[in-house]
Specification:
The structure is a single chain. By secondary structure, the chain is mostly beta strands. It has helices at 35-38, 40-43, 106-109, and strands at residues 5-9, 12-19, 22-29, 52-58, 60-64, 70-74, 77-81, 86-89, 95-101. Strand 1 and strand 2 (12-19) form a beta hairpin. 20% of the residues are buried.
């Protein structure tokens, strides 16, 4: 992404570009990545409390919620991941997510549930 800011958080690589009041992100999760193993120590929360909306461009991810619900996404597929999940990369390929967000206002601005809704 031209002019994007690059960040590394644990083993995750993130490129972020501001677009108006939103951000467009390319997030690369390496093989073997699991949120509860790699990000929990960084965030201090038991689950990922951020919503993720976008498109999985490469790879496959698995999400689990406290109520036992499971959702998997495989490229190419649109994703909408509610807060309160644990997730991991499935297989030997990295997962690449193109994500659109409003930082801490993502849930409200996109009218998403604040916590997981059983499907």
């Amino acid at each position: 992404m031209p002019d994007a800011a690059h960040h590394s958080i644990g083993t995750v690589e993130i490129d972020v570009q501001r677009t108006g009041s939103a951000r467009v992100k390319r997030v690369i999760y390496p093989p073997g990545f699991r949120w509860s193993t790699h990000m929990k120590p960084v965030t201090g929360t038991d689950r990922c409390m951020h919503a993720h909306v976008g498109f999985i461009a490469h790879g496959r991810i698995h999400m689990e919620y406290p109520d036992g619900s499971v959702v998997e996404y495989q490229a190419p597929q649109i994703v909408s991941i509610e807060p309160g999940h644990d997730g991991w990369v499935v297989g030997r390929e990295p997962a690449v997510l193109i994500e659109f967000d409003f930082e801490r206002d993502t849930v409200a601005r996109l009218a998403l549930p604040e916590t997981h809704q059983r499907r």
